[in-house]
Structure formats: C-alpha cells, structure tokens
Amino acid sequence: MDLPVMSEIVFDVIREDLGGYAADCATEELSVMADSWKELRESVKAAVERHFQNGPKPVSVRLHLVRDDIISME
Predict the structure, then answer these.
(1) Whole-number average pLDDT of the chain
(2) For the whole model, what pTM was predicted?
(3) 3-state secondary structure the chain
(4) H or E stretch covering 35
C-alpha cells in the first residue's frame, strides 16, 4: 500500500535572543537550532530527510519566521 505524499511541512522559526534560530514543526516531532539562516535551512532539510527516511517525504518545507513586536501605547 502506497502512503500519501505530504505536499508541504511547516516550521515556525524564531530568532533567539542570544543569536541564531530555533525551528519547530507543529505536525511532526521535529525541532532544529542553528546559528545562521543558511545553517538552519541545511539542518531542517537534513532533519526532514532523516524523519521521513522510511516513507514518502514532503515535496517542500516552509520556514515561517515568527516575530513578536511589542509596541508601547504610553
């Protein structure tokens, strides 16, 4: 029986206070940390490859940069 192919997997990415990035996937148990955006992309790709090594993997990965911006109204 063929398993369905997931079209996309999404990671929410935050910029860490001390530098670097942390990425978490809500649909799979995947988390990645990296010092640069380039390193994050490479690490996410490797993590997804490992996670789906025994079955069909997603067609694409979306890195969703989440940013908190607090505006004082005083």
Answers:
(1) 91
(2) 0.83
(3) CCCCCCCEEEEEEEECCCCCEEEEECCCCEEEEECCHHHHHHHHHHHHHHHCCCCCCCCEEEEEECCCCCCCCC
(4) none
